[in-house]
Amino acid sequence: MNRIKHHIILEDLKEAKKVKIIVDGEEMEAYEGEMIAAALLANGRKQFRYTKKHHSPRGIFCGIGRCTDCIMTVNGVPNVRTCITPVEDGMVIETQKGVGEWKRGENGV
Amino acid sequence: MYKTSIAVIGGGPAGLSAAIEAAKAGAQVVLIDENSRPGGQLFKQIHKFFGSKEHKAGVRGIDIGKQLLKEAQELGIEVWLNTEVCGIEQNKLLWAVKNKTESVQLLSERIVLATGAMENSIHFPGWTLPGVMGAGAAQTFINIHRVAPGKKVLMIGSGNVGVIVSYQLLQAGCEVTAIVEASPRLGGYGVHTAKVCRAGVPFYTSHTILRALGENKVEGAVIGRLNDKWEFIPGTEKVFEVDTICIATGLTPLAELAWIAGCKFKYIPELGGFVPLHDENMETTIQGIYVAGDITGIEEASSAMEEGRLAGINAAASLGFYSSKQKEKLCNEVRERLDALRQGPFGKMRRIKKQELITSRREIRCHQQQIV
Amino acid sequence: MSSTTNCLKTIGSPSLEELKGSPGFPDEHHMKKGPIAIIECIEAIPCNPCETACPKGAIVVGHPITNLPTLDVEKCIGCGLCIAACPGLAIYVKDYTYSDTEALIVFPYEYYPLPSIGDKVTMVNRRGAEVCEGKVLKINLSEKNNKTPVISVSFPKKHFEEIVSMKRI
Fold first, then answer.
1. Is residue A5 a part of any domain in this protein?
2. Residue A68 lies in domain
3. What is the ipTM of this complex?
4. d(CA B251, CA A93)
5. pTM for this structure?
6. What residue spans of A1-109 are helical by DSSP H?
7. What are A69-88's pLDDT values in tens digits?
8. Do B133 and A65 make contact, defined as CB atoms within 8 angstroms?
9. Domain membership of residue C68 as a residue range
10. A109 at the B interface (CB within 8 A)?
11. Is residue A42 part of a domain?
12. Residue C11: inside a domain, yes or no?
């Protein structure tokens, strides 16, 4: 959709291996190895979490893992910085509400 | 516990250059970076760099990054990726977390801090809405991840970052609706502003953003004119229909590790805020700890690389890998190149302020000697 | 302050008045004599690849490298090697003598998609305003240009002074 396929300086976007991710229960296509935030943006998703007190939406802000605005719950682990965490096939990604909830036991953490 | 001669923290242009110089001298080097790929922000710099041949002028940042990585690999530099350094003890013991799970300690005779900087933000109603982001963030998404952050972008700030990213957004196929600058004068290099200007992007000087529009994401922006006291003039509002607002209002050095280590700092707004003091050799107020690049004053990647070289050469020389004569020769070459970059109306202020850092460092050293 | 001074730092592009006072901008006579490089670099930034790229020694920056590039109008042959060498994309070549009715411009263009030879394109001025139509004659994608395509377009002579580039496709 909004993937930049052609570019005058960078070469044409290489066809990467496609993987499936599950975002809030919905299956989405992503490129293997790309960051979660990039995959979501490519699928038109801009809201990544809602704040605890005012329930206001947050999305990508610094893009390099510093600001923690883009954190989500990934495979049950909350507060994952999606802009610097690569997707994996079958990854379960959830919009984070507030500070998130640890699902103990499921991931061995 | 791991041991090494020199640990370099941060694998951007400054850190890579420091590691390369130290390894060239024969020192054992470990380069640590928190990211999954080294290179820092070099790989999103797809434009040709300025300077002269010695500064790799005309080469694109992305290609300079590739060259540095190749050099580091050929020199056998050990690179620890996905590793966050959390503490420095007794000036030489690093504590880090690898892959978010493993706690490691590294004892290093010398440490080079090249941790870079992060983007500043400005705050206005709606600034937290999805769609408002740092200009550097947008640059990362278009040039590295190859995903456009939106279709229509409003850029806040006309410094080099603002105009370069605007140009690269155009190259990525986005529309840049306008570039807004609070000052009456544009900040970036004229060649950059001219480039986006002839592409039809309008500049609004003496204007600021008043608010972002939208409930769940950015759907527009309101800007307004400022008077000569930088106050908003009511009735001058202008509405843009945009889906992305990029903020390019400067950077702040990421100097946490220098604070933790106990380095002395000075507040120099022109360099981006609090910066660790260092001498001509990039050594901080703590013996054996060096700094290079944006951590000690926001500049271009070209000067960050030269500072990195200076730090690498000196860290290695202090361990006996160079004679003082060899060291001076190498350092003078680097300093000459660094001085060449810090000339003219843009570079002059940085030269003066960097000198201020060095002078303050010297005063502290004199004071320390008097106490002893 | 007249409306044409200090355009670079307020509007974003230099005015003719600002350019005419700079050492890289040829005088009227030489500008119209044949193919010649036109350097729109009027700020002292640390940069000199234009000097190194010129095979005729027609561009001098010297030391310090923040000096403005000076064009020796007698030495410049309008070969255009400086166009892609300039990291600021601030140099183009123009030929007033291209034909009786048309002039030629050779300029850097770093956008996708590129036009094709023979295409009619819209030519723009320094502020991006559409001025006239032009015809694409050549697209130079030489490896030496390091991914900066250099395009040659002919356009009506009467717009000689204002045309600097083409509108993105």
1. no
2. 18-97
3. 0.97
4. 31
5. 0.97
6. 36-42
7. 999 999 999 999 999 999 99
8. no
9. 16-166
10. no
11. yes
12. no
